[in-house]
Amino acid sequence: MLNDSTLSTILFRIEHLFDGQSSSSNKMLPRNTENLFPISTSNDFLPDLTLSNDIVDELDCYLKNGDDVSNRSHTSSPLIAPSSVSLKQQTSSKFQFILNALTASSAKINEETTTYLNQDQPYEIKFHVNNTSSSENFLPTIYRSILRLCFWDKILQNQERELVQKWLNEYKSISLFDIDMNLTYGILSIIRARQIPNAIEIVWDATTTTSLFIRFKCTSTDFALKRHGGEKGIPLRIQIDTYHENDVNDIQHLYSCCCKIQLFRLKGAQRKNKADKMRIEKLNIDQRRHYQTTLEHTVLQPCVVSSLYTLNLLTLSYAPDDLSNVDTQSTMTTENITEEKKDCENNLQENRNNSTGYLPSPLSDMKHTYSDLRNTEVQKATKITVQSSCEEVLNWLNNNNFSSVINQFQHYTGIDLLRLTMNDIRRICNSNDSISIRLYNQLHETVVAPLKILYVKTTNTDLYSAIYLHTLTRHELEEKIFELIQQTHQEKYNLIDDFFSLKKIVDSGADIAIVGGGFLGSELACALGHRAKERAKNGKPSGKVIQLMPEKGNISKVLPEYLSKWATDRVRDEGAEVLTNVELVNASIQDGKVNLAYIDPKAPQKTSYMTADHVLVAVGIEPNTDLAKSAGLEIDPDQGGFLVNAELQARHNVWVAGDAASFYDIKLGRRRVEHYDHAIVSGKLAGENMTGAHKPYWHQSMFWSDLGLKVGFEAIGLTDSDLQTVAVYAKRQPEDEEPQEDSEGNREQKEVASTTNELKHKIPETKTSTTTIDNKNDYSKGVVFYLKENKVVGVVLWNVFNRIPIARKIIKDQQEITDFQELAKLFNIHKD
Q: Are 590 and 596 in contact (CB under 8 A)?
């Protein structure tokens, strides 16, 4: 059976051809103004009837081969290019440009196909060369193409410049579309001219896979006289004109193609395609034959060269100062950067004294930061293009540490360098792979544009600065903000050696403020306070050490309230001033010092202030789970970190260890701990389970802390100050055992046989905190038991060392205890 849709297309074209002949005797047809049927003539006003030869050939092919005919009726344009186009245009089969978007199902077989697209959504355009001609001795690999967004209707073509400019003014933009460089690949260079906001010049290499991703800023309704919706908007046209680049001074036009599109807001394209599909499905079979079949991709169809559509290369039409590389731009243009830099310089003196507030920086620092950003943009823009001269190539080689091969490339231009293959560069560099590989990779690098740009200003200033984000994570945003405000003397302490540098600060006599009352903040307050106190006794320079915390005492999240307050007094004895129950509300830098504003509970109606030379922030850390969320890993809403099972597995083939894991403890339930001991054991167990061990996590990790020379403790299990606690204390003796550590400072002890008694009595009713003590208010040595559901779930050994295996055994046995004095004897605190 014959293909009715194909036959209808051929008959329609024949009918149109005859209509053109009959009308030619009555009126003159203008040349190159018809979108659907481009006309080429020997003079400007007569139709070319040689087109009928092509139709006869296609009809003959159709009758012989049935369905194996040209598929032009299913492409984005049912027509062919005229025979009068130059020989180069006839060889257009070499090129194929494909828009990765569905064709509309509403187009009839005698109409051009429309493709519906969404605003601000990246669409891929594939560049392809069909090297099928074996007679050619040379096939160029570098091409230049002009991609242009214009109007489809002839009525609006002559008004294009005015309508585009009106849109730019209304929407405060510099172009109708952007190129997504994060997705684009295989492009050597993309050039934009300031005077042409709806076109770009693309330099691409045919030997590599090339795809361009384009984002349209406008919609079809933006150009409509009455904006009712995307369906009633103005149809637009994507046109690509390709040129052969034998030489910069010898560029020839090869091929032109186009497609018809309509742009919608949000997901309007999907809704329109769905509505059209539903409408077509309601038709009967005979009616459906009048419509074209929807294709997964839109193939841009050949079109005639026209002054309305075809542009000359931008690099040949405009001065270099009017051109810019798209791949080095972000949404902030060079002009905007220059203007904001000028504003920064003009407002520098006026706003110098207004840099107060929460962690602000002087405008001079802002200017320096902004200058660094500007220099980064300039550095990114300094790259080899097809327009680079010999001098620019030599400068680029020198600036990028290729001075050893400058002599080999002294006569190379940019286009010469970009044409070189990996093997070419290797031979020129005398087979020096370390140089040739790096040179090739750097020549073909892709500058990654930021995913998001934020414009922020500091307190009491009107100057906005740009923050460029590439990963869209909280950690990156925090780093960028700190870089922007340029806070002086800001450092991160990660290693032990980093903390030793604090000794020099104390020895200089500087005042230090420590924010945080946890383990790290309390240990630093004791160590630095003791050092400052000893230096003051010896008459050496010493400053104040002040610790601020919102809690009632040191390490209050672990220790019972009475013991936490007692520990705070010991920190004060070491030489540090401790402010508890205070709320830090602001921080600012002025005259080289840090001003801290806080609310003192003794005077809650007013804000108190203090000044320090250095501020140490020790408030703990949380696992960064931003990136892992996109991988489908579940986050513990209560504990934080990644939810894992008892085998430390988060999902198939994914294991998590250390303090980032919220694991299931077979004895104590769901937990997340930040212990050195836990990191070592869980890391090894996760590795074993990766190899198929399937072992549950059973280890009860321990931790320890020393607050000066007089207080130290070791702990294990659930040690939450909100739990019920029972403690037994004894007077500390000089002969008490000291803590044992290995070469790395680890106090973990090996498992020992249980010496616990089988105590089977129930725990009596007690208050939240029950204390048994030989000497009142003397908590110098003892054992604190943490209870949950009448069982010991945690133990703190207060100035009692090397007894962790006993505590671990008690937690593991989960027995009910009533006589804690008897239980405490297992730890030998009374030295009986």
A: no
- Of 41, 70, 99, the last residue of a domain is 70
Distance, CA of 423 to CA of 434 (rounded, Å) = 13
Q: Could you report the per-residue pLDDT of 295-317, keeping only the tens digit for each?
A: 888 888 888 776 655 667 777 77
At 764, list the tokens. 């009596």
Domain C-terminal end among 70, 97, 125: 70
Residue-level pLDDT at 743: 56
Instruction: Put residue 367 in one of left, alpha, beta given phi > 0 → left and psi -120 to 50 → alpha.
Output: alpha
Q: Number of C-alpha atoms within 13 angstroms, CB side, residue 538?
A: 10
pLDDT class of 487 with cuts at 50, 70, 90? low
Please give the residue range of the domain that contains residue 46: 1-70
Contact assessment for residue 127 and residue 205, using Cβ atoms and an 8 Å cutoff: no
Contact assessment for residue 69 and residue 58, using Cβ atoms and an 8 Å cutoff: yes
- Tell me, yes or no, whether 590 lies in a domain: yes
Torsion of Cα atoms, 37 then 40 then 46 then 51, to 10°: -70
Q: What does the angle CA 577 – CA 580 – CA 581 come to, to the nearest 5 degrees?
A: 155
pLDDT of residue 387: 74
pLDDT digits (tens, 9 = 90+) for 595-628: 899 998 888 888 889 999 889 998 877 777 776 7
* The two three-digit tokens of residue 791, written as one number: 């069982």
Residues 630 and 775 in one domain: no
109 plus 188 within the same structural domain: yes
The residue behind tokens 């070319």 is 48
The angle subtended at Cα 407 by Cα 404 and Cα 409, nearest 5°, is 105
Question: Where residue 667 sits, what CATH number does that domain have?
Answer: 3.50.50.60
